[in-house]
Amino acid sequence: MKGAIQIGAHYAQEYEDFKKAGASNFIFFEPLEEAYKTLCEKLPKTDNIKTFNLALGNEKKLVVMNTEQVNSGMSSSILKPTEHLKQFPHIVFDSKELVQMDKLDNIKYDRTLYDFICLDVQGYELEVLKGAINSLEYVKELLIDIHAGLYEGSATIEEIDALLIPLGFTAISYNWNNRKWGTVTYKKL
Fold first, then answer.
1. CATH number for the domain harbouring residue 31
2. 95 DSSP β-pair partners
3. How many domains does the chain fold into?
4. Rounded Cα distance, 59 and 77, in Å
5. Is the pLDDT of residue 103 over 70?
6. For residues 58 and 181, which has the higher predicted lDDT (pLDDT)?
7. What are the CA-CA distances from residue 35 to residues 30, 40, 67, 173, 174 (Å)?
8. Under a CB-based contact definition with an 8 Å cutoff, are residues 154 and 124 in contact?
9. pLDDT tens per residue across span 74-85
10. Burial of 138 (0-12, 13-18, 19+ CB in 10 A)
């Protein structure tokens, strides 16, 4: 791994794992203001780490996120929670936050330095990937938390496969919980 992009970074909890895997360049996207502040406080201040207080999707616009505090905001989503409310009834979405959204393809950075994307966007995975088609040309591996069925309009694994397979990606590992959500690793082989 040369460089890692984390979309839905929260507090950049995976930063040390990315470093151990060999990454030397990092970009973190976190749309929620308080989580972004914490992320910036925790990360070292170096030229090889870039942070954006931004949601990613397939267009540039302002969006309202459904937010929660019980899970430190990690379950917050652009999409309305549905099955999530049943599977995790202790997590209450009791507020909203207006955030700026853009496409990864619109962000200026040296794409040759980044070959890995970690994506955790609570059901909005397919829209983020659609907004990253050109950027994905440089990516060799994706680690995607897929939240199928947990949020209204969330993508299924089949929809994500339909987008990624023609781009040369193959799902190589699944950590799938109850067939509704889980983590999938895709690689260009």
1. 3.40.50.150
2. 67
3. 1
4. 16
5. yes
6. 58
7. 7, 9, 11, 29, 28
8. yes
9. 777 887 878 877
10. middle
Please answer whether residues 111 and 144 qualify as being in contact, where contact means their C-beta atoms are separated by less than 8 angstroms: no
Residue 128 CB contacts under 8 Å (≥ 6 apart), including other chains: 7, 56, 57, 58, 104, 119, 121
Q: Is the pLDDT of residue 69 over 70?
A: yes
pLDDT at residue 94 in the model: 86
Query: On the CB side of 153, how many CA atoms lie within 13 Å of its CA?
Result: 8
**Number of helices (H), then strands (E), in the chain:** 5, 10
Structural domain of 40? 3-188
Share of the chain above pLDDT 90, in %: 69
Alpha helix ranges (H) inside the chain: 15-20, 33-42, 83-87, 125-130, 157-164
Q: Tell me, yes or no, if the pTM score tops 0.90.
A: yes
